[in-house]
Each structure stands twice: as C-alpha cells, then as structure tokens.
C-alpha cells in the first residue's frame, strides 16, 4: 500500500512537469509569431513615408511654378501684335506690358516699368526697355517690327518719349529676338563730341559757313538763295555765331522727329538734333542723323544732313556720308 502511494506521487509530479513545459513552449511560439507579424507591419510603414514626402515636394514645386508664372504675367497689356520673329513659320505674340509700382515702403512717386513680353508655343521671354517716374509721356510713342541689322530676321524697334525743358525728347530701344540682344539709345559722349565739332560762322552779306572738324565737313550757304535772310548782318551774326547743336534727340515738329525709315534695302533710324541760335527759344535749324544697325546689333551713324528753318519750313543745305 505504501509503495502504491509513492508511485502515484511520482506520476503526479511527472504530469505537472510536462504541463509546465508545454506552457513554456506555447509562450515561445506566440512571441515568435508576434515578431513575424509586427516586423512586416513596421517595414510597410517605412516604405510609405518616402512616397508621401515625395508627393508633398512635387505639390510644393507645382505651386511655386504657378506663383512664378503669375508673377511673370503681372502688369497691364497696352499693345499686342503678332509676327514671325524666328522664321519658323509661326507667329510669336509680342506684348508691351506696363508695370506700376510705388517707391520704397510703398511711398513716394510711382515708378512705371515697360516690358516686352514675347510668347511662342512653348516659352515666354520678357525684357525691360524703360523705367521712369510715372508722368504724362507714357512708355512709348511707337513700336515697329523690322529687320534692322539685315540678317533676315525681324527685330523690335520702340520709340520712348520723354519731356525736356522746352521740347519733347525721344530715344529708342531695339531688340533682336534671334540674338536675344538689345540696345538703348538716348545720348552719349560720342554724340556730345560730334555736336561740339559743329561751328556756324556768319561771314556777312547773307553768307553762312557750316563746318564740322571731326569729319572734315564744310559747306557755305547763301541764305538769300534758300529764302532765309535775316533783317540785318548784326542780327545774323548774333544768331548764327552763337548757335550750337544740342546732343539730344528732339521732336522739333511733325516732320522732324525720331523715326524708323524703310529704305527699300534695309532700315535707317532718323534722329533729329536741334540747332539753337543764341538761346533755346530760337531754333534756327536741325542736324538729322541717320543710323543703321550693325552685325553686333548696335546703331552706327552712316550719314547726316544739315537743315535750316524758315518759319517752320526745312531747307536742306548740306549732307555728309561718314566713312566707316
């Protein structure tokens, strides 16, 4: 009997030990299975994050591009036309844009900026041609499309008005779409030196000498033959001997203003300069300069004409071809 009880106790201990071993094995299996489930879940989350970041960057870039386009498109269109500037058989849209802005901190005189905006089927190109205080003259007096430098491609020519003390002034801006090059002409030291070279000398009895030492130009004018004859020699001496050529493109009259001239085999830019007699209130003549545009897309003076004025009527008294 005693042996039977001992045997039962041993069997019970063995059964208890096996039960604990099975529980430990089940716990290990759950931990391993849990790791296998959790790791793929974490890995999937890591792969999604770069995609989300990439999409956000693309959205930001698109918005910035739209903002830049809107920024480039600002301003009022004051003139628009179409022409083929690059000889591809399709017209570009050429717009003159006016952009108005205040001074620093939004205060002070308003500044007006003039831009050329050129649109083709895939690109937009903008160039500023003038910046000045807003006034009554406006951005431009005229715009023309012409082959200025003779390369077979059309260029843009703009006349910009300005206000002087006595007369309206003008200067011009030219732009080559092919070369993406521009030039702004108003006045410079060369033009000032050219004007200083002129000398008017009244010799008496209606005879007037006009010369320019820089180019070796000289002409003697009989004022009686031109219909221009002063009341007296003294008045003529005061008027002509104290005269000078002003180195500023000036709008002297309807037939005396900065213009683009079609010569048939090219284009010339006519620039009138006033000749003042003793004072700026007395315009006695004008010197008309004629420019062509060279291969470097810069205006070069080719010739000039001398005119005297009689009651507003122009009388040509001399011409000079400049040797290049």
Describe this structure in words.
- By secondary structure, this protein is an alpha+beta fold.
- The protein folds into 2 domains: about 75-185; about 190-320, no CATH class.
- Helix content is about 30%, strand content about 45%.
- It contains 4 helices and 18 strands.
- The protein has helices at about 1-70, 190-195, 225, 235-240, and strands at about 75-85, 90-100, 110-120, 125-135, 140-145, 155-165, 170-175, 180-185, 200-205, 205-210, 215-220, 245, 250, 260, 265-275, 280-295, 300-310, 315-320.
- The strands form 4 sheets. Strands 12, 14, 15, 16, 17 and 18 form a 6-stranded antiparallel beta sheet that branches.
- Strand 15 (about 265-275) and strand 16 (about 280-295) form a beta hairpin.
- The longest helix is centred in the N-terminal third of the chain and has 71 residues, at about 1-70.
- The radius of gyration is 42 Å and the shape is globular.
Task: Using brief descriptors, characterize the structure shown.
single chain; 18 strands; 5-stranded antiparallel sheet; disordered N terminus; 324 residues; alpha+beta; 2 domains; 6-stranded antiparallel sheet
